[in-house]
Design brief:
This protein is an alpha+beta fold.
């Protein structure tokens, strides 16, 4: 075959270190925009980025020449640097180590998009820790609940 064709959709989910509520309404759209631009700069395609004060969801089309781990290294590293350089939080900002990555078929994209778009409403009913654990359960990811989240020191 002379060309490479692909259709790989993933949702990545990652949290503020210690799940602190550091993403304020004042700077949230700026942070989400930076993350979306960073995804696009890797050659992947941002579909939607949204989240709450303590975590982010990104739905994207993955470029086959970049690994999810390389993508997340760029997105998390450069976005935290941007947040700190522009003093968008009261304290030094860091993302928690790790992330979740979940794949979807094209037929699921609309539903996932709506889910991510409605994060604020969703989290009035369910906290992030329970949401993330339900993702891991839904996708049959084996995990130790004691090791999923970094705890406050």
């Amino acid at each position: 075959m002379s060309n490479t064709f692909h259709q790989v959709y993933i949702q990545v989910v990652f949290a503020v270190k210690y799940r602190e509520a550091l993403i304020t309404d004042e700077y949230k759209s700026k942070i989400l925009g930076v993350i979306g631009n960073l995804i696009n700069e890797t050659g992947c395609k941002t579909i939607i980025v949204n989240g709450t004060e303590d975590h982010i969801h990104c739905l994207l089309a993955l470029k086959p020449t970049i690994s999810v781990s390389d993508l997340m290294k760029v997105v998390k590293g450069k976005s935290s640097k941007f947040i700190n350089d522009h003093q968008l939080t009261k304290h030094r900002f860091e993302w928690q180590e790790g992330y979740g990555a979940f794949s979807y078929s094209k037929s699921h994209i609309d539903a996932v998009y709506k889910y991510i778009a409605n994060q604020e409403e969703h989290h009035k009913k369910q906290n992030f820790k329970d949401e993330y654990s339900s993702f891991l359960d839904k996708y049959n990811v084996t995990f130790d609940k004691r090791c999923v989240f970094e705890n406050l020191i």
